[in-house]
Specification:
The chain is mainly β and 412 residues long. Helix content is 10%, strand content 37%. A six-stranded antiparallel beta sheet has the order 1-2-24-23-22-21, with no helix packed on it. A five-stranded mixed beta sheet has the order 3-20-19-18-17, with no helix packed on it. The longest helix has 10 residues, at 280-289.
Length: 412
Protein backbone atom coordinates (compact mmCIF):
# COMPACT_ATOMS: atom_id res chain seq x y z
CA UNK A 1 0.00 0.00 0.00
CA UNK A 2 1.40 3.41 -0.95
CA UNK A 3 0.94 6.27 1.48
CA UNK A 4 2.41 9.79 1.24
CA UNK A 5 4.64 8.93 -1.69
CA UNK A 6 6.35 5.95 -0.08
CA UNK A 7 5.80 2.37 1.06
CA UNK A 8 4.57 1.42 4.52
CA UNK A 9 6.80 -1.02 6.35
CA UNK A 10 5.54 -4.02 8.27
CA UNK A 11 7.14 -4.82 11.61
CA UNK A 12 7.73 -8.48 12.46
CA UNK A 13 6.46 -8.60 16.04
CA UNK A 14 7.96 -12.05 16.68
CA UNK A 15 11.54 -10.83 16.31
CA UNK A 16 13.67 -7.77 16.93
CA UNK A 17 14.47 -7.37 13.25
CA UNK A 18 12.27 -5.06 11.22
CA UNK A 19 10.82 -6.52 8.06
CA UNK A 20 10.83 -4.22 5.05
CA UNK A 21 8.55 -5.02 2.11
CA UNK A 22 10.17 -3.47 -0.96
CA UNK A 23 8.73 -3.58 -4.48
CA UNK A 24 11.30 -1.92 -6.80
CA UNK A 25 8.66 -1.42 -9.49
CA UNK A 26 6.40 0.70 -7.28
CA UNK A 27 8.50 2.84 -4.96
CA UNK A 28 8.48 6.59 -5.51
CA UNK A 29 10.64 9.53 -4.55
CA UNK A 30 10.30 12.98 -3.02
CA UNK A 31 11.57 16.51 -3.62
CA UNK A 32 14.99 17.30 -2.17
CA UNK A 33 13.58 19.88 0.25
CA UNK A 34 11.49 17.18 1.93
CA UNK A 35 14.56 15.05 2.66
CA UNK A 36 17.40 17.49 3.36
CA UNK A 37 17.83 20.49 5.66
CA UNK A 38 20.99 21.72 3.95
CA UNK A 39 22.50 21.19 0.50
CA UNK A 40 25.99 22.46 -0.24
CA UNK A 41 28.12 22.07 -3.35
CA UNK A 42 31.91 21.93 -2.84
CA UNK A 43 34.01 22.11 -6.03
CA UNK A 44 37.35 20.30 -5.72
CA UNK A 45 40.22 22.48 -6.88
CA UNK A 46 41.58 21.61 -10.31
CA UNK A 47 45.30 22.01 -10.96
CA UNK A 48 47.70 20.15 -13.19
CA UNK A 49 48.69 17.97 -10.23
CA UNK A 50 45.22 17.51 -8.75
CA UNK A 51 43.26 16.67 -11.90
CA UNK A 52 41.63 13.22 -11.74
CA UNK A 53 38.76 11.34 -13.35
CA UNK A 54 36.06 10.15 -10.98
CA UNK A 55 35.68 9.50 -7.26
CA UNK A 56 35.97 5.79 -6.64
CA UNK A 57 36.06 6.24 -2.86
CA UNK A 58 35.80 9.21 -0.53
CA UNK A 59 36.93 9.43 3.08
CA UNK A 60 35.80 12.42 5.13
CA UNK A 61 37.62 13.56 8.30
CA UNK A 62 37.19 16.65 10.49
CA UNK A 63 39.51 18.61 8.21
CA UNK A 64 39.97 16.62 4.99
CA UNK A 65 38.35 15.15 1.91
CA UNK A 66 40.42 12.20 0.69
CA UNK A 67 39.64 10.93 -2.81
CA UNK A 68 40.69 7.62 -4.35
CA UNK A 69 40.77 7.78 -8.14
CA UNK A 70 40.97 4.34 -9.73
CA UNK A 71 42.13 5.62 -13.12
CA UNK A 72 45.34 7.17 -11.78
CA UNK A 73 45.78 4.77 -8.82
CA UNK A 74 46.30 7.81 -6.62
CA UNK A 75 44.96 9.53 -3.52
CA UNK A 76 44.10 13.23 -3.59
CA UNK A 77 43.89 15.23 -0.35
CA UNK A 78 41.72 18.37 -0.17
CA UNK A 79 40.76 20.58 2.75
CA UNK A 80 37.09 21.00 3.64
CA UNK A 81 36.77 24.01 1.31
CA UNK A 82 37.97 21.87 -1.61
CA UNK A 83 41.50 23.29 -1.84
CA UNK A 84 44.05 20.75 -3.09
CA UNK A 85 46.76 19.75 -0.60
CA UNK A 86 48.60 16.61 -1.69
CA UNK A 87 48.70 13.69 -4.10
CA UNK A 88 49.94 10.27 -3.03
CA UNK A 89 50.68 7.06 -4.91
CA UNK A 90 52.29 3.75 -3.99
CA UNK A 91 54.89 2.80 -6.56
CA UNK A 92 54.08 -0.44 -8.41
CA UNK A 93 50.87 -0.90 -6.38
CA UNK A 94 47.21 -0.35 -7.26
CA UNK A 95 45.15 1.08 -4.40
CA UNK A 96 41.95 -0.91 -3.98
CA UNK A 97 40.42 0.39 -0.76
CA UNK A 98 40.80 3.20 1.77
CA UNK A 99 39.24 3.70 5.19
CA UNK A 100 39.67 5.96 8.19
CA UNK A 101 41.43 4.49 11.23
CA UNK A 102 40.44 6.85 14.04
CA UNK A 103 42.57 5.07 16.64
CA UNK A 104 45.73 6.03 14.73
CA UNK A 105 44.47 9.24 13.06
CA UNK A 106 45.49 7.56 9.84
CA UNK A 107 44.15 6.49 6.49
CA UNK A 108 44.35 2.71 6.09
CA UNK A 109 45.21 1.80 2.50
CA UNK A 110 44.92 -1.67 0.92
CA UNK A 111 46.77 -2.18 -2.36
CA UNK A 112 47.87 -4.91 -4.78
CA UNK A 113 51.11 -5.17 -6.72
CA UNK A 114 50.46 -4.31 -10.38
CA UNK A 115 53.04 -6.86 -11.51
CA UNK A 116 51.12 -9.87 -10.17
CA UNK A 117 47.67 -11.23 -10.93
CA UNK A 118 46.83 -13.55 -8.04
CA UNK A 119 43.76 -15.74 -8.77
CA UNK A 120 41.11 -16.18 -6.09
CA UNK A 121 41.99 -19.87 -5.63
CA UNK A 122 45.55 -18.86 -4.74
CA UNK A 123 44.35 -16.13 -2.40
CA UNK A 124 42.28 -18.73 -0.59
CA UNK A 125 45.42 -20.78 -0.04
CA UNK A 126 47.24 -17.77 1.38
CA UNK A 127 44.38 -17.23 3.84
CA UNK A 128 44.61 -20.75 5.27
CA UNK A 129 45.76 -20.72 8.93
CA UNK A 130 48.70 -23.01 8.16
CA UNK A 131 49.96 -20.89 5.26
CA UNK A 132 53.55 -19.68 5.71
CA UNK A 133 53.81 -17.75 2.44
CA UNK A 134 55.07 -14.18 2.74
CA UNK A 135 52.49 -12.21 0.74
CA UNK A 136 54.07 -8.77 1.26
CA UNK A 137 55.16 -8.44 -2.36
CA UNK A 138 51.62 -9.17 -3.60
CA UNK A 139 49.35 -7.21 -1.25
CA UNK A 140 49.94 -4.64 1.42
CA UNK A 141 48.20 -2.65 4.13
CA UNK A 142 49.59 0.82 4.74
CA UNK A 143 48.78 3.49 7.31
CA UNK A 144 49.07 7.06 6.00
CA UNK A 145 49.22 9.34 9.04
CA UNK A 146 47.00 12.41 8.80
CA UNK A 147 48.63 14.72 11.36
CA UNK A 148 50.75 16.19 8.55
CA UNK A 149 49.50 15.28 5.09
CA UNK A 150 52.36 16.92 3.21
CA UNK A 151 54.89 14.84 5.18
CA UNK A 152 53.30 11.66 3.75
CA UNK A 153 54.41 9.59 6.73
CA UNK A 154 53.45 5.92 6.29
CA UNK A 155 53.78 2.57 8.01
CA UNK A 156 53.15 -0.90 6.55
CA UNK A 157 51.37 -3.69 8.40
CA UNK A 158 53.83 -6.46 7.59
CA UNK A 159 52.73 -9.64 5.82
CA UNK A 160 49.03 -9.06 6.51
CA UNK A 161 47.52 -11.83 4.38
CA UNK A 162 43.95 -10.53 4.75
CA UNK A 163 44.99 -7.39 2.87
CA UNK A 164 43.73 -9.29 -0.22
CA UNK A 165 40.17 -9.00 1.12
CA UNK A 166 39.98 -5.28 2.04
CA UNK A 167 39.02 -6.02 5.67
CA UNK A 168 37.31 -3.33 7.74
CA UNK A 169 38.84 -1.93 10.93
CA UNK A 170 36.83 -3.05 13.94
CA UNK A 171 36.92 -2.58 17.71
CA UNK A 172 40.30 -0.78 17.95
CA UNK A 173 42.76 -3.55 17.04
CA UNK A 174 40.68 -6.03 15.04
CA UNK A 175 39.34 -6.42 11.51
CA UNK A 176 36.16 -7.86 10.01
CA UNK A 177 36.99 -9.81 6.84
CA UNK A 178 35.13 -11.83 4.22
CA UNK A 179 36.30 -14.17 1.46
CA UNK A 180 33.83 -16.76 0.13
CA UNK A 181 35.14 -19.28 -2.36
CA UNK A 182 33.97 -22.84 -3.06
CA UNK A 183 35.74 -25.48 -5.15
CA UNK A 184 35.02 -29.16 -5.65
CA UNK A 185 38.59 -30.23 -4.86
CA UNK A 186 38.82 -28.41 -1.54
CA UNK A 187 40.35 -30.51 1.23
CA UNK A 188 37.96 -29.06 3.81
CA UNK A 189 34.22 -28.67 3.65
CA UNK A 190 33.62 -26.02 6.31
CA UNK A 191 34.46 -22.34 6.05
CA UNK A 192 32.83 -19.11 7.21
CA UNK A 193 31.60 -16.11 5.26
CA UNK A 194 32.57 -13.57 7.94
CA UNK A 195 35.59 -13.62 10.23
CA UNK A 196 36.87 -11.37 12.99
CA UNK A 197 40.66 -11.33 12.94
CA UNK A 198 43.66 -9.63 14.44
CA UNK A 199 46.88 -9.28 12.46
CA UNK A 200 47.32 -13.02 12.06
CA UNK A 201 44.61 -15.03 13.83
CA UNK A 202 40.91 -15.69 13.36
CA UNK A 203 39.11 -14.77 16.59
CA UNK A 204 35.45 -15.32 15.64
CA UNK A 205 33.53 -16.96 12.77
CA UNK A 206 30.03 -16.29 11.43
CA UNK A 207 27.82 -17.80 8.67
CA UNK A 208 29.21 -21.27 7.81
CA UNK A 209 29.19 -22.52 4.22
CA UNK A 210 30.32 -25.70 2.42
CA UNK A 211 33.51 -25.14 0.41
CA UNK A 212 32.96 -28.27 -1.68
CA UNK A 213 29.30 -28.17 -2.64
CA UNK A 214 27.94 -24.61 -2.73
CA UNK A 215 28.23 -24.03 -6.46
CA UNK A 216 26.94 -20.44 -6.31
CA UNK A 217 30.44 -19.64 -5.00
CA UNK A 218 32.38 -21.65 -7.63
CA UNK A 219 32.76 -19.34 -10.58
CA UNK A 220 32.42 -15.69 -9.60
CA UNK A 221 35.96 -15.27 -8.35
CA UNK A 222 35.52 -14.76 -4.65
CA UNK A 223 32.28 -13.46 -3.19
CA UNK A 224 32.28 -11.34 -0.06
CA UNK A 225 29.97 -10.08 2.61
CA UNK A 226 29.57 -6.33 2.46
CA UNK A 227 31.03 -4.87 5.66
CA UNK A 228 30.14 -1.24 6.29
CA UNK A 229 31.39 1.15 8.98
CA UNK A 230 29.34 3.36 11.28
CA UNK A 231 30.35 6.34 13.40
CA UNK A 232 31.06 3.86 16.20
CA UNK A 233 34.27 1.91 15.52
CA UNK A 234 32.90 -1.05 17.51
CA UNK A 235 29.75 -1.36 15.40
CA UNK A 236 29.66 -2.52 11.77
CA UNK A 237 26.81 -3.31 9.39
CA UNK A 238 26.98 -6.55 7.41
CA UNK A 239 25.08 -8.08 4.49
CA UNK A 240 25.63 -11.40 2.68
CA UNK A 241 25.61 -12.43 -1.00
CA UNK A 242 22.19 -13.57 -2.26
CA UNK A 243 20.59 -12.87 1.14
CA UNK A 244 18.36 -9.98 2.15
CA UNK A 245 19.17 -9.37 5.81
CA UNK A 246 21.10 -6.46 7.32
CA UNK A 247 23.09 -7.41 10.40
CA UNK A 248 24.64 -5.33 13.16
CA UNK A 249 28.04 -6.61 14.27
CA UNK A 250 29.44 -5.76 17.72
CA UNK A 251 32.43 -7.27 19.54
CA UNK A 252 30.15 -9.73 21.34
CA UNK A 253 27.54 -10.72 18.74
CA UNK A 254 26.00 -10.32 15.33
CA UNK A 255 22.28 -9.46 15.24
CA UNK A 256 19.77 -9.37 12.42
CA UNK A 257 18.44 -5.80 12.37
CA UNK A 258 16.45 -5.69 9.13
CA UNK A 259 15.03 -8.22 6.69
CA UNK A 260 13.94 -7.24 3.19
CA UNK A 261 11.03 -9.06 1.57
CA UNK A 262 11.03 -8.70 -2.22
CA UNK A 263 8.52 -9.63 -4.94
CA UNK A 264 9.07 -13.02 -6.60
CA UNK A 265 10.45 -11.35 -9.72
CA UNK A 266 13.25 -9.79 -7.66
CA UNK A 267 14.09 -12.40 -5.00
CA UNK A 268 16.59 -15.17 -5.69
CA UNK A 269 14.57 -18.42 -5.32
CA UNK A 270 15.64 -21.34 -3.14
CA UNK A 271 16.29 -23.37 -6.29
CA UNK A 272 19.20 -21.02 -7.15
CA UNK A 273 21.27 -22.52 -4.33
CA UNK A 274 20.66 -26.06 -5.60
CA UNK A 275 21.28 -25.39 -9.30
CA UNK A 276 24.70 -27.05 -9.35
CA UNK A 277 26.45 -24.62 -11.71
CA UNK A 278 29.12 -26.42 -13.72
CA UNK A 279 30.83 -23.45 -15.40
CA UNK A 280 31.29 -19.71 -15.15
CA UNK A 281 29.38 -19.33 -18.40
CA UNK A 282 26.41 -21.20 -16.98
CA UNK A 283 26.23 -18.89 -14.00
CA UNK A 284 26.62 -15.80 -16.19
CA UNK A 285 23.78 -17.02 -18.39
CA UNK A 286 21.58 -17.55 -15.32
CA UNK A 287 22.25 -13.98 -14.18
CA UNK A 288 21.53 -12.63 -17.65
CA UNK A 289 18.22 -14.49 -17.83
CA UNK A 290 17.23 -13.31 -14.35
CA UNK A 291 18.61 -9.79 -14.48
CA UNK A 292 16.03 -8.42 -11.99
CA UNK A 293 17.04 -10.81 -9.20
CA UNK A 294 18.67 -9.00 -6.30
CA UNK A 295 22.24 -10.15 -5.67
CA UNK A 296 23.08 -8.21 -2.52
CA UNK A 297 22.28 -5.29 -0.25
CA UNK A 298 25.17 -2.81 -0.18
CA UNK A 299 26.21 0.68 0.91
CA UNK A 300 24.10 0.63 4.07
CA UNK A 301 24.37 3.85 6.07
CA UNK A 302 22.43 4.35 9.29
CA UNK A 303 21.98 8.05 9.88
CA UNK A 304 19.98 8.99 13.00
CA UNK A 305 16.37 8.08 12.10
CA UNK A 306 17.26 7.21 8.52
CA UNK A 307 18.89 4.27 6.75
CA UNK A 308 20.23 4.52 3.20
CA UNK A 309 20.89 1.32 1.27
CA UNK A 310 21.48 -0.01 -2.24
CA UNK A 311 19.87 -3.12 -3.67
CA UNK A 312 22.24 -4.55 -6.27
CA UNK A 313 20.54 -6.64 -8.95
CA UNK A 314 22.22 -9.14 -11.27
CA UNK A 315 22.01 -6.28 -13.78
CA UNK A 316 21.73 -2.78 -12.34
CA UNK A 317 20.82 -1.50 -8.90
CA UNK A 318 18.23 0.44 -6.92
CA UNK A 319 18.79 2.88 -4.05
CA UNK A 320 16.48 3.45 -1.10
CA UNK A 321 15.97 5.61 1.95
CA UNK A 322 14.13 4.15 4.96
CA UNK A 323 12.74 6.38 7.70
CA UNK A 324 12.68 4.45 10.98
CA UNK A 325 10.36 7.01 12.57
CA UNK A 326 7.61 7.01 9.95
CA UNK A 327 8.29 3.48 8.65
CA UNK A 328 8.39 4.72 5.05
CA UNK A 329 10.71 3.73 2.20
CA UNK A 330 11.65 6.18 -0.55
CA UNK A 331 13.35 5.50 -3.87
CA UNK A 332 16.54 7.55 -3.54
CA UNK A 333 17.09 7.60 -7.31
CA UNK A 334 13.81 9.49 -7.57
CA UNK A 335 14.66 12.30 -5.17
CA UNK A 336 14.07 15.30 -7.41
CA UNK A 337 15.94 18.59 -7.47
CA UNK A 338 14.12 21.78 -6.49
CA UNK A 339 14.98 25.32 -5.41
CA UNK A 340 16.72 23.99 -2.27
CA UNK A 341 19.36 22.40 -4.55
CA UNK A 342 19.36 25.24 -7.11
CA UNK A 343 17.65 22.67 -9.39
CA UNK A 344 20.95 20.77 -9.53
CA UNK A 345 20.77 16.94 -9.09
CA UNK A 346 21.29 15.45 -5.62
CA UNK A 347 20.76 11.74 -6.39
CA UNK A 348 23.45 9.15 -7.01
CA UNK A 349 25.84 6.90 -5.11
CA UNK A 350 26.57 7.99 -1.55
CA UNK A 351 30.35 8.25 -1.40
CA UNK A 352 30.83 8.88 2.32
CA UNK A 353 29.26 10.24 5.50
CA UNK A 354 30.12 11.90 8.79
CA UNK A 355 28.10 12.68 11.92
CA UNK A 356 25.99 15.38 10.24
CA UNK A 357 26.11 14.78 6.49
CA UNK A 358 26.15 12.36 3.61
CA UNK A 359 28.32 13.08 0.57
CA UNK A 360 27.74 12.48 -3.13
CA UNK A 361 29.65 13.69 -6.14
CA UNK A 362 28.78 15.03 -9.57
CA UNK A 363 30.98 15.66 -12.58
CA UNK A 364 31.69 19.23 -13.66
CA UNK A 365 30.14 18.46 -17.03
CA UNK A 366 26.90 17.30 -15.37
CA UNK A 367 26.85 20.50 -13.32
CA UNK A 368 27.01 22.64 -16.46
CA UNK A 369 24.39 20.50 -18.21
CA UNK A 370 22.05 20.82 -15.22
CA UNK A 371 22.59 24.59 -15.12
CA UNK A 372 21.70 24.89 -18.77
CA UNK A 373 18.55 22.79 -18.46
CA UNK A 374 17.29 24.80 -15.46
CA UNK A 375 18.06 28.31 -16.73
CA UNK A 376 14.36 28.99 -17.34
CA UNK A 377 13.80 28.66 -13.57
CA UNK A 378 16.25 31.51 -12.93
CA UNK A 379 17.96 29.87 -9.89
CA UNK A 380 19.83 32.24 -7.55
CA UNK A 381 23.17 30.54 -6.95
CA UNK A 382 25.26 31.13 -3.84
CA UNK A 383 28.73 32.66 -4.06
CA UNK A 384 30.54 29.32 -4.46
CA UNK A 385 28.34 28.12 -7.32
CA UNK A 386 28.37 31.53 -9.01
CA UNK A 387 32.16 31.48 -9.02
CA UNK A 388 32.20 27.84 -10.16
CA UNK A 389 30.06 28.50 -13.22
CA UNK A 390 32.02 31.65 -14.07
CA UNK A 391 35.54 30.20 -13.75
CA UNK A 392 35.44 26.42 -14.14
CA UNK A 393 35.27 24.12 -17.18
CA UNK A 394 33.39 20.93 -17.96
CA UNK A 395 36.66 18.99 -17.80
CA UNK A 396 37.48 20.11 -14.24
CA UNK A 397 37.41 17.92 -11.15
CA UNK A 398 34.10 16.64 -9.77
CA UNK A 399 32.03 18.60 -7.26
CA UNK A 400 31.13 17.16 -3.86
CA UNK A 401 27.52 17.41 -2.70
CA UNK A 402 27.20 17.73 1.08
CA UNK A 403 23.68 16.87 2.28
CA UNK A 404 22.28 17.19 5.79
CA UNK A 405 19.25 14.88 6.15
CA UNK A 406 16.28 16.14 8.13
CA UNK A 407 15.65 14.91 11.63
CA UNK A 408 11.98 14.43 10.74
CA UNK A 409 10.86 13.82 7.19
CA UNK A 410 7.69 15.62 6.16
CA UNK A 411 5.22 13.14 4.70
CA UNK A 412 2.99 15.50 2.77
Amino acid sequence: MFVCGALWLCLNASAQAKTLYVDPSKTVGAPASRIFDEIRFIPLETTKKSLFGAIRQLVVTDSLFIVLDGDTDALYFFNKRGKFLQKYRIKRYRIRDIQLDRTKNALLIFSLNKNYNIPSVKVQEYLEPESQTDISKYAKATWFYLDNVKAARTEDLKNFRYAFTNPVRFDKNKFAASFIKAKRTSRDTLDYQLKIIDNANVLQNYFPYNKKTESVYYFSGASQCSIMPTQNDSVLLVTRPFQYEIYTLTPSAITESYKLILPMENAVPASFFNTGFSSRGEMDMYKMEHAKYAEKIQNVIRFKNLMFFDLNLFRGYNRYLFDNKTNLIYDYNKISSDSSSYFLPVSGVIKSFDEEHIYLSISAKSMFNAKKSSEYRDPQYDEVLTRFFETRKETDNPVLIQLKPKEDLVTK
